[in-house]
Amino acid sequence: MRSTVQWLENVAFEAKSESGHSVVMDGSPAYGGENRGPRPMELILMGLGGCASFDIVTILKKARQEISNVECQLQAERADEVPAVFTKIHLHFVVLGKALKEKQVAKAVELSAEKYCSASKMLSSGGVEITHDFEIVEVA
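The structure corresponding to this sequence follows.
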């Protein structure tokens, strides 16, 4: 996997992925940014949510659960000192669907956290405390 990051101006950068996608990252105005895009650490948090959500959707579809939406709400804490690494991250999944089995959703969340989510495994092996929970919303 490859990526490039090109400096645009001030503290703004454009990252391009090997698959041809790009995203602009920018710092906060306090650091000379213009708020033109997410901060790099926000992208890491969003990537974790995307990785875990991908797993959960895939696992629930294989389990023949009739899901209509999965939302991952993430909350993170960072160290006060530099480098301001993540110290704790909590993922809360809101799973919407028809007649979803709580046991299947719990298993999907657990499998993502313990086995499949590369981002979660990488961050937790680096000392980040990662926790998960979920709620099921029945839809008609």
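The CA atoms of residues 74 and 91 lie 5 Å apart.
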